[in-house]
Amino acid sequence: MKKVTYNVKVEDAELIFRNFSGNAGNFNPIGRRNFNVVLPVDTAIELEKDGWNVRWLDPLDEGEPKKPILQVTVNFGYKPPRIIMISSRGKSSIDEASVKILDWAEIKKADVVISPYNWNVKGKSGVSGYLKSLAVIIEEDELEQKYMNVPDSAQNTIGGCGNCEVCDGTCKSDEH
Fold this sequence. Notes:
Blueprint: E1 8-10, E2 14-19, E3 34-38, H1 41-49, E4 54-57, E5 67-73, E6 82-87, E7 90-94, E8 107-121, E9 124-138, H2 142-146, H3 153-157
Parallel strand pairs: 5-9, 6-9
Antiparallel strand pairs: 1-8, 2-3, 3-5, 4-5, 6-7, 8-9
């Protein structure tokens, strides 16, 4: 099998079976962060030819076609992925400590770039997908939008001196 060196980009991606937190489950050992991306059929067929581990989900409704998916590993070890979340407040970088919020976020739109990892174990080989970058636009509900500009009172009370509108930890006051 030839070595795969190209990244896969899926725009307007549907992300399913999200486990950014790495919780243990029936099909997942604890600590393994991943999700699945639904692929366009033509992309799935090409990836399969090159050895990517594409799976085909049976439809929920009779008469519907099978849905091609690719599991994507989220690893912050050697080369962490670039993850950004976009809301009405703007763009935020998501790191290893905060990535778990994507497990339950209402994702309006997602664009993802997946890097290949070529593996060969005991005579078997294939290509696994690792997250390179992800941009998600979050769907906010009406209450979230209504109260987004209300100051966070916890920021004013935790370790603050009361001299600042919002304590950012840079104050040199003797009262801290």
